[in-house]
């Protein structure tokens, strides 16, 4: 049997295969609370060894896109409980991705219409967020000019993550994944181009990674490190994240720091479409060796590429994103050699019309 379809012990949690459904924002919640349609969407895909939810803002401040379901109040817990119950009823496992976008937001969706926050005041300009346009209609807008978080506010954001992690466990999730990839708030602190701080969260490599590691440790203390995953995107270029001096050094330092922490996993996204420069030769192998624990990888995988990487011991679990949109039974299709359906890009995001369109209306494979 292909290694891709063999069970895996994830920090004491048995996964039925090594296929992971990657986190994907779908903007399907009008009131930011998951409903029965969202529960069906995840339940349809529960044959994956592990499901990771779309990014869930840990506060109103952490939101950068309209119609993304949060995890910071009692209504969110009730809504997500529908999802976890539906997934568990199908024998699935599911982690909640905790998210703060930092500067990737806009005043129109910030509490009190204030500026988004970041490590500093550098605005993201070569990108957009989904917020309210000048006419008040939902649409793509350039992120707002951010303000730099005060030192005490950085610690408050960590506390927001801890609060959301506790609520996620209350909602029945099997664990949480900290979203520290794709140019969002943690990347903004790591980057020497975006972080001009002179407090303990800026300057040296040690200081710039402090926010991330303090948050990892605080969540681990609250719910157990074996229930905590972390997603990072070394050398990523999404959302106007530019190269910066010492980039390879900081990722090597983070690998060493994470290797001292017994997390459930580290989820690497190498962004094959968006990376402007190749990842340095040997970096992936060195990162895995230094880390020592479970590695999930995402980014352009097919069954064949996944099997090759698993056999070469480059990773432990493989995350698939876009293929899961149109193929709720992706595991079965790959395992049986059935063809994959193509997804309709025009329905990837949005809440106009029927919520089910391009979301829960893709059928499982049926042999003619």
TrEMBL record:
Signal peptide: none annotated. One of its GO terms (molecular function) is FMN binding. Pfam families: Oxidored_FMN. GO terms for cellular component: cytosol. Keywords: Oxidoreductase. Residues 3-339 form the NADH:flavin oxidoreductase/NADH oxidase N-terminal domain. Its cofactor is FMN. Transmembrane segments: none annotated. PANTHER family: NADH OXIDOREDUCTASE-RELATED, NADPH DEHYDROGENASE 2-RELATED. Belongs to the NADH:flavin oxidoreductase/NADH oxidase family. This is NADH:flavin oxidoreductase. It comes from Rahnella aquatilis (strain ATCC 33071 / DSM 4594 / JCM 1683 / NBRC 105701 / NCIMB 13365 / CIP 78.65).
């Amino acid at each position: 049997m292909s290694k891709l379809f063999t069970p895996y012990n994830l920090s004491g949690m048995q996964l039925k295969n090594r296929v992971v459904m990657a986190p994907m924002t779908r903007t399907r919640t009008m009131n930011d609370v998951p409903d029965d349609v969202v529960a069906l969407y995840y339940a349809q895909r529960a044959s994956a060894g592990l499901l990771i939810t779309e990014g869930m803002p840990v506060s109103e401040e952490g939101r950068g896109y309209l119609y993304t379901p949060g995890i910071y109040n009692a209504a969110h817990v009730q809504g997500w409980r529908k999802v976890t119950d539906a997934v568990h009823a199908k024998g699935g496992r599911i982690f909640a991705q905790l998210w703060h976008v930092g500067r990737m937001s806009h005043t129109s969706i910030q509490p009190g219409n204030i500026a988004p926050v970041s490590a500093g005041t550098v605005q993201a300009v070569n990108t957009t967020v989904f917020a309210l346009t000048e006419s008040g209609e939902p649409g793509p807008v350039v992120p707002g000019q951010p303000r730099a978080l005060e030192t005490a506010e950085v610690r408050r954001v960590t506390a927001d993550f801890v609060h959301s992690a506790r609520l996620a466990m209350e909602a029945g999730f099997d664990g949480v994944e900290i979203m520290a990839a794709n140019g969002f708030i943690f990347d903004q602190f790591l980057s020497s181009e975006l972080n001009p701080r002179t407090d303990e969260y800026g300057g040296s490599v040690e200081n710039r990674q402090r926010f991330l590691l303090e948050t990892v440790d605080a969540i681990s203390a609250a719910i157990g490190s074996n229930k905590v995953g972390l997603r990072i995107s070394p050398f990523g270029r999404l959302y106007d994240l530019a190269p910066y001096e010492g980039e390879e050094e900081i990722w090597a330092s983070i690998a060493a720091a994470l290797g001292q922490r017994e997390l459930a996993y580290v989820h690497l996204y190498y962004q094959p479409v968006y990376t402007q420069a190749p990842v340095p030769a040997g970096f992936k192998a060195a990162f895995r060796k230094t880390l020592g624990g479970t590695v999930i990888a995402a980014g352009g995988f097919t069954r064949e590429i996944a099997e090759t990487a698993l056999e070469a011991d480059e990773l432990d679990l493989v995350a698939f994103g876009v293929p899961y949109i149109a193929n709720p039974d992706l595991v079965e299709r790959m395992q049986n050699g059935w063809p994959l359906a193509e997804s309709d890009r025009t329905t990837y995001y949005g809440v106009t019309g029927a919520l089910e369109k391009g979301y829960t209306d893709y059928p499982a494979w049926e042999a003619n």
